[in-house]
Amino acid sequence: MISSSSRLMLSTVAGALIGVVVATALAMAWDAAGHRDSDLHQRLHHAVPLDAQEQVTLDAKEKAFAERRAAIEGDLQMANGRLADAIARTPSWSPQVEAATRDVEKAAADLQRATLVHVFEMRAGLKPEHRAAYDAVLIEALRRGPR
């Protein structure tokens, strides 16, 4: 028979392991998303021939988005830490795990929303004759999904 202190210790270790697995999985997903972003970015640059003015405009928009994205990714990392802590404290579905999960979901949604705003800001920085090519690459990537 396992004592209650042994059960508590096993539960704590299990919770910590679950937290590490969740954090690792999310980190791998974000890393993969970065590669998809780079791939999409390359396809957009290949499909849309930018002139010097468009390049300057879009570079400024890219820099602003990189700063915004870094801030949101920091929020996501902190939310993942809170989730890991909640799981370590209570290695089961609990109000604390639920709240931490909602924080992770909010940060992920904030990143998605900021990315979409950025996509439309980039489009607005293009000449009208370049927007159809931009739209086509973007829509195809969204329909195809991650690969």
Your description of this structure?
The protein is built from four helices and no strands. The chain is mainly alpha-helical and 147 residues long. The protein is elongated, with a radius of gyration of 21 Å. The N and C termini lie far apart (49 Å).
Structural class: mainly alpha
- String of helices and strands: HHHH
Mean pLDDT: 81
Tell me the number of helical segments per DSSP (H or I, 4 or more residues long): 4
Low-confidence stretches: 8-17, 19-35
Query: Quick one: overall form?
Result: elongated
Task: List the defining traits of the structure above.
mainly alpha; 4 helices; 147 residues; elongated
Question: Brief description of this entry?
Answer:
The chain is 88% helix and 0% strand. The protein is mainly alpha-helical.
Q: Could you outline the blueprint of secondary structure elements for this entry?
A:
Blueprint: H1 4-47, H2 52-89, H3 95-124, H4 128-144
Helix pairs in contact: 1-2, 1-4, 2-3
